[in-house]
Amino acid sequence: MWLYLRTAPALRRVWLRPTVFQATRGRGVKVYFSMAEARPSYEDIQKISDFLLSKTKHRPKIAVICGSGLGGLADVVEDQNAIDYTEIPNFPRSTVPGHKGRMVFGLLAGKTVVCMQGRFHPYEGYPLWKVALPVRVFKLMGIETLFVTNAAGALNSSFNVGDIMLMKDHISMPGLAGDNPLKGHNEDRFGPRFPAVSDAYNSELRQLARDIGKELGFESFMQEGVYVQVGGPSYETIAECKLLRMLGGDCVGMSTVPEVIAARHCGIRVFGMSLVTNMVVMDYDAKVTVNHEEVLETGKRRAQDMQKLVSKMIGQL
Ligand SMILES: O=P(O)(O)O[C@H]1O[C@H](CO)[C@@H](O)[C@H]1O
After folding, report:
1. If you average pLDDT over residues 261-273, what whole number do you get?
2. Which of 35, 41, 230, 285 has the maximum number of C-beta atoms within 10 A of its C-beta?
3. DSSP 3-state of 12
4. Is ipTM > 0.90 here?
5. How far is the CA of 182 from the centre of ligand 1 (A)?
6. Hey, where are the domains in the chain?
7. Residue 3 — pLDDT band, cuts 50, 70, 90?
8. SS3 call for 136
9. Closest CA relative to residue 150, chosen from 256, 228, 268, 302
10. Residue 90 assigned as binding residue
11. Best probe residue, ligand 1, of 121, 227, 281 (max atoms within 8 Å of C-beta)
12. Is the CB of 274 under 6 A from ligand 1?
């Protein structure tokens, strides 16, 4: 059932979901409703895209989403136009340290790009469709290739802090539990109801990363593996880490997968990369725990190398 609410300045359409039907003796049936935020339509997303393009002369075909502490890449974009998320109508806000919250248009290695200096996470309270909303905005701006980076904990004990893991696949814990950015009405203009994601991470781009990594002398700290997305914001328990490793995960983080699913749904090719910022705790006798400061610190130390790799790849597209 749709309910129309007059709020300044707009008429808002709110979806009312019947949640509980309770029979009351002699007095019929009581129906309780809960409210869910309406998703933006194709046209609403087009408006966000048009707004952004009206703020820049750049017309990128490549987008980069920067992970925690990895936003430095956007700072080296030349001839840049930066738009704060707070200026973009109907766009979420970044709330996590290490995510500046700016959309940066400009040139990287001579190619026109747009960088998200800060992404959205489900644990900030955003539904998955909203976490993935920027990707649909990218699609309508003409983006064909998406680079996603993230900070992650290593489940694979042969990895080291500071390693770069090329993502070859993912396991979505929210997805397996029934949550997905594509849940709900399917907008056919973006893509099909049942998109395949078995080829989510483009193999040619991964090969390019391996070749460039070799050229740059990064082989000793370049890995390839499976990223597991968890909900956060609490880090994983020891038992959870053991489970995720048994399931085939190499790294664990709280992001990226919603954006990747939305990108593949609308035909954008994807390259993903995790920076191992910490080893997860797998031992009950360990005296260490994971913390976000450590995550950001490692990001700072390896950021230059990640920037070099991404820039060189973009230069060769
Ligand atoms: O995935 P990104 O945004 O890089 O950040 C990672 O770092 C934060 C935890 O330290 C979480 O947000 C996790 O997902």
Report:
1. 98
2. 230
3. strand
4. yes
5. 22
6. 2-33, 42-315
7. low
8. helix
9. 256
10. no
11. 121
12. no
User: What is the pLDDT of the chain when averaged over all its residues?
Assistant: 91
Q: What is the pLDDT of residues 171-216, one digit of tens each?
A: 999 999 999 999 999 999 999 999 999 999 999 999 999 999 999 9
What value does the CA radius of gyration of the chain take, rounded to a whole number of Å? Answer: 21
Q: How far is the CA of 166 from the centre of ligand 1 (A)?
A: 16
Contacts of 42 (CB under 8 A, 6+ apart): 187, 189, 190
**How far apart, in Å, are the Cα atoms of 195 and each of 63, 87, 218, 258?**
21, 33, 34, 13
Residue found by looking up tokens 């019929």 in the block: 28
pLDDT at 24 exceeding the cut of 80: no
The verdict on whether residue 278 carries a ligand-binding annotation is yes
**Candidate list 81, 123, 240, 297, residue with the active-site label:** 123
DSSP 8-class letter at 220? G
Rounded CA gap, 148 and 162, in Å? 17
282 CA from centroid of ligand 1 (Å): 19
66-85: average pLDDT: 93
Other CB atoms within a 10 A radius of the CB of residue 279 amount to 18
Q: What is the predicted pLDDT for the residue at 23? A: 43
What CATH architecture does domain 42-315 belong to? 3-Layer(aba) Sandwich (3.40)
292 lines ligand 1 (CB under 6 A): yes
Q: Is 254 considered catalytic here?
A: yes
Tell me which of 49, 180, 202, 278 is the catalytic residue: 278
- pLDDT recorded at residue 293: 87
Distance of CA 48 to the CA centre of its chain: 18
Ligand 1 binding pocket includes 119 (Cβ within 6 Å): yes
| Residue 146 confidence class, pLDDT cut points 50, 70, 90 | very high
